[in-house]
Amino acid sequence: MTTDLRGNPLTCTADAARRLDVAIGKFHIYQADPVGELDALLAEQPDCVMAHALRASVFATTTDKAFEAEVQRSLALAKALAPRGNARERAYVAAVRRWADGDLAAATETWGGIAIAHPTDLLAVQFAQLGDFFMGQSQMLRDRVARVLPSWHRDMPGYGYLRGMHAFGLEECGDYAQAEAAGREAIALDPRDGWAAHAVAHVMEMQGRPAEGAAFMRATAPGWSPDSMFAYHNWWHLALFCIDQGDIPGALCLFDERVSAGGFGQALEAIDGSALLWRLWVLGHDVGDRWSLLQQPWGARMSHGVYAFNDVHAMMAFVASGDRAAQQATIETLERAASGRGTNAMMSRDVGLPLARGLAAFGQGDYGAAVRHILPTRGIANRFGGSHAQRDVLSWTLCEAAIRAGDAPMAEAMVAERLAAKEGSPVAQGWAMRAKTLTRPLAA
Ligand SMILES: [Fe+2]
Q1: How far, in Å, from the CA of 203 to the mean position of ligand 1?
Q2: Nearest to 81 by CA among 12, 147, 131, 35
Q3: Contact present, 351 and 378 (Cβ < 8 Å)
Q4: 208-235, pLDDT tens digit by residue?
Q5: What is the pLDDT of residue 195?
Q6: Is the dihedral of CA 246, 247, 252, 257 positive or negative?
Q7: Per the domain annotation, does 168 fall within a domain?
Q8: What is the 22 CA–ligand 1 centroid distance (Å)?
């Protein structure tokens, strides 16, 4: 029987199995280019069902409508070949079929089920973690990894990547000490592991350690940055550390040279572009004409409503650039998605729509309405996915909106949260000083 390098069964040739190992190894650390490896393999061995399933899954988990044709093409070939595959391969095909049908929860459970049946199947653990990430399921980010750990030991290939995945799950669950230790161990095993470095960055972001975080990211970047398909996001984290040290030019420089380096060719990059500029724009910093770099990419994707998290980040670009027609179109997109089917219907209804309306109100100067839309949504915003650090943009916007609304009690409440999390942040201290100048209403 053919297997992958960790002994998981395959029905392809031994040569195809080794080439799959190469493609999967690159995907584990988001290094270019797993799809190129798969395409080269499939050009010679077009009946490799696992290669088709993997190709479809890689594109599907970008959550980017621009890649839907590639997903459907590979999925159709995988489905046609599935009857000749083994149970594990058929499960991979079923998982990506469910994802493509819009049932992210069922797809994620299917990948999770593969990992239960095959605990050394690191690829299944990774796809399940991606699914949990896109659904904001913090506990599962940690526990899907924890449940396979007893089947692993340090000398197995990919052990460090598993530790990096565990690190991120631990961080999202607030276990910062264990998360940092796991992330640092993973980086020591392979300095190219940008996901592990990312987990450590998250720890430092959540603990309000921007100087350490910036130093860590700069020190480790020579490992994780070259040939990476994920580096833009780690640079985004570095930009957040810059902002939290008052280094606005440094953050803008990172936007110009790193975050925008890919031309926002995929939604995941455009999310970071929007999230960075929005934080600066909300604070009143001049970001020049940088929003124009995001308007077109978001505009090309906005009418599809495949993932509410994307639509809300598109909304940031349209609000900040004053494009009222695009704002209205995005709200209509979310309304259609909310009445549709699949996981994104819930995301759009519960989180996407109220947030989009709140951002639009902020742009129109109706800061009280912005607070009314965003405040009750923030507590359930994990339902539309992302990390705590990404969703922190909501608390950021609430602080500014409450202050601009002149709502002293609300501003004091939002600022108190902020200071509790990041006492030394110049951004938080700036909000605190402004909140103090507001006048509380007289008691009735
Ligand atoms: Fe992140």
Answers
A1: 10
A2: 12
A3: no
A4: 999 999 999 999 999 999 999 999 999 9
A5: 98
A6: negative
A7: yes
A8: 25
User: Which of 231, 258, 285 is at the close of a domain?
Assistant: 258
Given a cut of 70, whether residue 422 has pLDDT beyond it is: yes
> Distance between CA 379 and CA 12 in Å, rounded?
47
275, 417: one domain = yes
> How many whole angstroms from 169 Cα to the centroid of ligand 1?
12
One domain for residues 67 and 166: no
Distance CA 55, CA 345 (A): 26
Q: Is residue 159 located within the same domain as residue 53?
A: no
Is 146 a member of any domain?
Answer: no
Q: How far away, in angstroms, is 438 Cα from ligand 1 center? A: 34
Please determine, for residue 442, whether its predicted confidence score (pLDDT) is greater than 90. Answer: no
- Joined tokens for residue 308: 């509410």
CB-CB contact of 377 with 136 (8 Å): no
Q: Which of 236, 258, 280 is the last residue of a domain?
A: 258
State how far the Cα of 51 lies from the Cα of 81, in Å rounded to an integer.
Answer: 11
Task: Name the helix (H) or strand (E) containing 96.
Answer: helix 87-100
pLDDT tens, 78-90? Answer: 999 999 999 999 9
Q: Are residues 135 and 56 in the same domain?
A: yes
* Interval between CA 130 and ligand 1 midpoint (Å): 12
Is 180 within 8 Å of 148 (Cβ atoms)? Answer: no
Structure tokens at 22: 């190469």
145 located within any domain = no
Question: Cα of 16 to ligand 1 centre, how many Å?
Answer: 33
- Centroid of ligand 1 to alpha carbon of 234 (angstroms): 7
* Helical ranges in 283-387 per DSSP H: 292-301, 308-320, 324-338, 343-347, 353-363, 367-378
Residue 40 C-alpha to ligand 1 middle, in angstroms?
31
- The CATH number of whichever domain residue 15 belongs to comes to 1.25.40
Q: Under a CB-based contact definition with an 8 Å cutoff, are residues 424 and 432 in contact? A: no
Distance 341 CA to ligand 1 centre (A): 28
Rounded distance from Cα 199 to ligand 1 centre (Å): 7
Q: How far apart, in Å, are the Cα atoms of 89 and each of 11, 36, 277, 342? A: 8, 21, 42, 24
**CA–CA distance, 256 with 178 (Å, rounded to integer):** 34
Q: Based on the fold, state whether residues 159 and 287 are members of the same structural domain.
A: no
Tokens encoding 18: 């080794």
What's the number of domains the chain is made of? 3
Range of the domain at 198: 152-258
Tell whether 287 and 351 lie within a shared domain.
yes
Instruction: Confirm whether 169 is domain-assigned.
Output: yes
